[in-house]
Design brief:
Cytochrome p450; globular
Length: about 400
Amino acid sequence: MAAFDRDSFDSFDPWDPSFVADPYPGYAELRERGRVHYHEPTDQWLVPHHADVSALLRDRRLGRTYTHRYTHEDFGRTPPPPEHEPFRTLNDHGMLDLEPPDHTRIRRLVSKAFTPRTVERLKPYVRSLADELVGRLVEAGGGDLLTDLAEPLPVAVIAEMLGIPESDRAPLRPWSAEICGMYELNPSEETATRAVRASLEFSEYLRALIAARREKPGDDLVSGLIAAHDEDDDRLTEQEMVSTCALLLNAGHEATVNATVNGWWALFRNPAQLAALRADHSLVPTAVEELMRYDTPLQLFERWVLDEIEIDGTAIPRGAEVAMLFGSANHDPAVFTAPDRLDLTRRDNPHISFSAGTHYCIGAPLARIELSASVTALLEHAPALRLAAEPERKPNFVIRGLKGLAVEV
């Protein structure tokens, strides 16, 4: 069995600021040491290779939840503390943490809002908003790329889709940040308390919004979900509607926000690549994919083992938790030539930043449009954009981002 020895443990420490700052050398050591490693501090099996991660994301013997098949006791797991219930209720009824048939039913209804035609129709709005935000940044002579562009763009887009009035949007990002704190490894009780409070406030707001749209439907996703709730044979429960809206708001901007600042920080550290992009804007589509791969916004994705699996001769029993290391998979030299080199012309780029299989990110096409729009707007309106101060990383490991990115134009 692939044990986690002392040297190997040193190569993966998600609470060490130096590891969080640059986990990729540690991932390389993990890949060299084997295909699977047991990590006692988190009670997880770490999977660092692209081929294994890609296969496991499609393996129905693993699931985002186990409660559709087992009780906590049958699965050998302790039930969540009762005081976490508001967070669990909100989180566990969203399609990201459900398995078929519930996942299939909800995803089918939500996917009607994410058809290629619908997403394509958003392009002019997204581009106009990106131009407006970058215009303000240029007028001010610079600012924080995180708060001035990376956050407001995707938040506004998903809020617009859901029909959330502009006057109500200020708490959306803070609520999301508090809730997403629970996705880190071994979150503290303080983190849980904040997530519970945000879950209660967010749920209360969404229930009021649903009630208002039921009285006066609009041309938005919430109204569409209500129609599905009221008319469709595979209708959503009200809790599923609330959880779905929360998930779309959280997942609908979290990756885009972090991909934007991670991406520009990578460009500033690779001036030759940035110069090539400035000289040839047709590189934007491949650049977006490469930036998503190079510094992956979601570093780790967890699955429960519903039926025993085997990786490289190591049996992983039912009830275990597998941690698929997206950041490591995206730097696997077996798949990517010179993976630690930023190459904006990279064509063969099967990164898994948007996951794969049943839980492939439903909003991936929209995220690509948002990232392309913001990169293009900055290239066109701020061609001399430069770093104003060395950024500081957030202490989070799973959701990888910066506290800010100060720039000048």
